[in-house]
Specification:
This protein is α/β, with parallel strands linked by helices. Helix content is 44%, strand content 14%. The strands form 2 sheets. Strands 1-10-9-7-8 form a 5-stranded mixed β-sheet, sandwiched between helices. The structure holds 5-phosphoarabinonic acid (PA5).
Length: 423
């Protein structure tokens, strides 16, 4: 379950005044009659997904665990951010894990790819190349180098260690995978990249990392059921959707996603893509930004407290941390920390949150929307991503924008291809 607390949001109006508009858009989403409605496959995905393929994902994940020390996840944007967000959020930092996951194909940095190839030289490697279009240059280029590395290292057996997730027929990756004999998984036509973490795009790397994808899908399923209700008093995703628009009307142009756990940094990256790519169109939309506190209180905190009043904060709160510890007492108290002796580390993090909330809201006049989940486990990850999908659809339709396309992304590609001499 996801709880939304508005008691620090400094709202000037009443959320419930939007009920009629929410009813209308809810119908539009569920009747699949709004802009971009070809991409609403995520809406009832837990009813419709291919159960045989899901089993195949689990089998492939087990095989990868046996085959490899390192799994290279080769993809960009929606084709890798969800898996990375899930794996980092659920396992936490320095997890006891036999499989190391390395993300490639998401940059043109010559140093990044060269160093990865050097690093994996003497390791056992498996690869999951993920591209819906099968033509994304960052991914395709890295995959060419990786393919050569794998073929040199493993000869004909390379194809048993490479798994391709792509469109069922379009693009260049599918024919390549068929020709080489890679096992393939399908990215459904009606689910866009930034919604695809609940398809094999996210599920294969997540399962290979040792995470329970049945629990993850149960979270998605429960959210699908519980958030299928237009009533603003009962639908936390729609409340969040409306509040974003209300704060925008109150003059805010930046939404800053705040977490107090370093293993949620990639959840924030995933969230930024989801909201930025979905609503930043036609000169509209809130700029999604992110910080990780208390770390960034020592860098960005000054701006949030005292800078231009452009932003509000959306704080993700977690009731139960993955790990906790107790501060030891020390004779002599030379570092003067004995006032914390016997306290838990998570309690201290809580106090940092409470103090920051008061500083930003009361002294800084910065609205804070609080989103709370119980734990950072697979179930809550599944629930949370669906919560954000649903909120996103509502919030972006409120702007009268198509949430599901990304025409602006093509502009840099066109220029780059001209400069690269692509025919
Ligand atoms: O959300 C999106 O549509 C994008 O971020 C894509 O996922 C990203 O551009 C990668 O595209 P592809 O999977 O076609 O390689």
């Amino acid at each position: 379950m996801v709880k939304v607390d508005l008691s620090h949001a400094l709202l000037e109006g009443n959320v419930l005044d939007y009920q009629e508009e929410v009813n209308r858009i809810h119908e539009m989403i569920h009747q699949k009659s709004g802009k971009g409605n070809d991409y609403l496959g995520w809406l009832d995905w837990t009813e419709n997904y291919d159960k045989d393929e899901f089993e195949r994902v689990k089998q492939a994940a087990k095989r990868i665990q046996k085959q490899a020390d390192v799994l290279l996840v080769c993809g960009i944007g929606g084709s890798y951010l969800g898996a990375r967000a899930a794996i980092e959020m659920i396992q936490g930092p320095f997890a006891k894990n036999n499989l190391e996951v390395i993300y490639v194909g998401n940059t043109f940095s010559s140093t990044a790819i060269t160093r990865v190839l050097e690093y994996i030289k003497d390791k056992e490697v498996a690869v999951n190349v993920i591209s819906k279009s099968g033509t994304t240059t960052e991914t395709a280029l890295a995959f060419r180098l990786i393919r050569h590395f794998m073929e040199e290292k493993y000869g004909e057996q390379a194809s048993e260690r490479i798994y391709a997730t792509t469109d069922k027929e379009r693009g260049l990756l599918k024919p390549l995978a068929d020709q080489k004999g890679y096992e393939t998984f399908v990215i459904p036509d009606d689910i866009g990249g930034r919604f695809s973490v609940i398809t094999p795009v996210g599920l294969l790397p997540i399962a290979a990392a040792g995470i329970d994808i049945d629990a993850l899908m149960q979270g998605v399923k429960d959210a699908t059921f519980e958030l299928n209700n237009p009533n603003l008093e009962e639908n936390s995703a729609y409340v969040y959707a409306v509040v974003r628009r209300m704060l925008e009307k109150q003059g805010k142009s930046v939404e800053m996603f705040v977490s107090y756990e370093s293993h949620l940094v990639f959840l924030a990256e995933w969230w930024k893509q989801l909201f930025g790519e979905s609503e930043g169109k036609e000169g509209k939309g809130l700029l999604p930004a992110s910080v990780n506190f208390s770390t960034d209180l020592h860098s960005m905190g000054q701006f949030v407290q005292d800078g231009t009043k452009v932003l509000f904060e959306t704080v993700i709160r977690v009731d139960e941390p993955i790990e906790d510890g107790i501060v030891p007492s020390e004779e002599g108290d030379i570092d003067q920390l004995n006032y914390l002796a016997g306290k838990s580390l998570n309690w201290i993090n809580e106090k940092a949150f409470e103090g920051t909330l008061e500083a930003h809201e009361v002294t800084g006049n910065v609205p804070n929307v609080l989103i709370t989940i119980e734990k950072t486990d697979a179930y809550n990850f599944g629930y949370l991503v669906y919560f954000f999908f649903k909120a996103l659809a509502m919030s972006v339709y409120m702007l009268d924008v198509n949430p599901f396309d990304q025409p602006g992304v093509e502009v840099y590609k066109k220029n780059m291809f001209r400069l690269l001499g692509k025919k």
